[in-house]
Design a protein that fits this description.
It is built from five helices and eight strands. It is α/β, with parallel strands linked by helices. The mean pLDDT is 96.
């Protein structure tokens, strides 16, 4: 189970016991917000894009969408999301549980500036019913983010 993979990964930071597992699904922004009783914007969704050299994973506020022009200006190519059937193989987690923790080699993680509005956010934790509350500093550190980008609208 992928949530166990995330817990094992987060153990190096001493936060594995902070993973929240719910009975109900949290596989979408709306479902996660309902499960936690928070506004959808605080759900840190993970978007995955094809890159000729691997995969780009962008963690973005739940109320934002990718701005194609900003993405192209930032990364130098048109955004092409991974197909649903490619996500688990290329990233290491199935859709609905994708997170930046312990991803496959060749996956570059970035945090979108849309997250900066919040003291803490809730990224998934490897499964369609798990998440963890983290500060942006923790999210950046634990997710091995390469930095912040502004690619949302």
């Amino acid at each position: 189970m992928s949530v166990e993979k995330v817990k094992a990964y987060l153990a190096r930071f001493g936060v594995e016991n902070q993973v929240i597992e719910k009975e109900q699904s949290s596989a979408t922004v709306e479902l996660a917000a309902q499960a936690l009783g928070v506004e959808p914007a605080r759900i840190a969704k993970s978007l995955t894009f094809n890159n000729d050299e691997g995969v780009i994973l962008i963690v973005m506020a739940g109320d934002r969408k990718t701005d194609n022009k900003k993405f192209r200006d930032t990364f130098g190519f048109k955004p092409r999301m991974l197909k649903l059937e490619e996500v688990e193989e290329k990233v290491g987690y199935a859709a609905g549980g994708v997170c930046p923790f312990g991803v496959n080699e060749g996956v570059d993680v970035y945090l979108d500036r849309s997250l900066e509005r919040f003291e803490t956010v809730f990224p998934a934790a490897g499964s369609g019913n798990s998440m963890i509350e983290l500060s942006l500093e923790q999210l950046s550190q634990y997710g091995c983010a390469k930095g912040f980008v502004d690619v949302s609208k």
